[in-house]
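Field log, afternoon session.

UNIT: design team B
ACTIVITY: writing a sequence onto a fixed backbone
BACKBONE:
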């Protein structure tokens, strides 16, 4: 079918173009995209493609329009959040940790289906797509039914979309990896979309939160949610039992470890340089834990409904973290996110 996609080339401005979607496979669904989050991973991937044309986007939410012949748990008209792709068969998937699927890199970042076939062509030529099993910077996206999580129709699409990755990562890191409880104090370093979602989730479950971010707008948002906020780790901080780093910076990670109380836990969700220095003696003598965390170590079909329930109960104000732009305002949306005007930017179909 014909559709409209936001086509990227790293050496050219993004542009809306007409494209052709491939026919559905039996296990796939066609989703009319209502909203899609903008994530740092999209930008990192774009830079790595070295000018090759690509349709990115991996936090889609929309209405199912068609289903493949083998799909039995979704029907046209269902609203779904599209999350990351996983095989469902490897040891990690079987153990309930699909974010660590042994085939994750190929399934989510190859630009094709697992069998190598393309999902999107432009002017008759295949382009990099099927990103995280979706490529939702588009009016329509093909996605594996397995990656789609049904959400209630009364949850706004622009609120639900980031639950596919960014909000899932921050919130999941709190709920699934760090698991602080009342009486603990969580330090969140970096209050962009992932960090803001982590802070909001921790507050929703009764945990005290301290946020570090150099941007005044982000600190103000964190404070309005109920967190204490500082510009840097050099400020005098209270005792910290749990911490989340979203920056991926080795110097920040090392400094954050120093701020932890004995037996404290630090989870890492940001990608930065491969190598860095930490004080191993301090980690050992104070019984600290350093944890990696991908996609909030979440099972999307479990964690997304939990977050939606908190939102519907008025405990998790995800709507306050979001600013919306249309797909054809991509450059302005990107600037707003980089400038800290919004914790999370979500793109909507063009008017």
């Amino acid at each position: 079918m014909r559709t409209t996609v936001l086509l990227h080339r790293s050496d050219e401005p993004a542009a809306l173009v007409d494209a052709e979607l491939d026919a559905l496979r039996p296990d796939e669904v066609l989703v009319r995209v209502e909203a899609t989050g903008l994530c740092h991973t999209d930008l990192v991937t774009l830079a790595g493609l070295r000018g090759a044309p690509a349709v990115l986007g991996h936090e889609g939410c929309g209405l199912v329009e068609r289903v493949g012949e083998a799909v039995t748990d979704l029907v046209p008209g269902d609203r779904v959040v599209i999350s990351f792709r996983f095989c469902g068969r490897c040891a990690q998937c079987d153990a309930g940790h699909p974010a660590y699927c042994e085939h994750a890199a190929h399934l989510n970042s190859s630009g094709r289906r697992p069998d190598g076939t393309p999902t999107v062509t432009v002017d008759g030529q295949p382009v990099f797509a099927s990103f995280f099993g979706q490529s939702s910077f588009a009016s329509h996206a093909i996605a594996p039914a397995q990656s789609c999580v049904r959400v209630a129709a009364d949850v706004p699409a622009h609120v639900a979309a980031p639950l596919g990755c960014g909000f899932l990562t921050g919130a999941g890191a709190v709920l699934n990896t760090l698991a602080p409880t009342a009486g603990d104090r969580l330090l969140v370093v970096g209050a962009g979309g992932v960090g803001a979602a982590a802070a909001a989730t921790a507050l929703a479950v009764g945990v005290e939160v301290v946020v570090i971010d150099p941007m005044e707008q982000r600190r103000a948002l964190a404070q309005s949610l109920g967190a204490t906020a500082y510009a840097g780790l050099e400020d005098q901080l209270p005792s910290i039992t749990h911490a989340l780093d979203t920056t991926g910076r080795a110097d920040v990670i090392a400094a954050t470890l120093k701020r932890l109380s004995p037996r404290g836990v630090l989870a890492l969700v940001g990608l930065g340089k491969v190598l860095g220095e930490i004080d191993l003696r301090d980690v050992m003598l104070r019984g600290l834990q350093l944890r990696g965390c991908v996609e909030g170590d979440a099972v999307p079909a479990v964690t997304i409904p939990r977050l939606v329930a908190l939102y519907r109960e008025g405990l998790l104000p995800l709507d306050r973290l979001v600013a919306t732009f249309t797909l054809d305002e991509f450059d302005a949306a990107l600037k707003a996110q980089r400038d800290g005007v919004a914790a999370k930017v979500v793109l909507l179909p063009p008017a």
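LOG NOTE: The chain has two domains: 2-166+297-348, 167-294.
NEXT ACTIVITY: expression trials, pending approval
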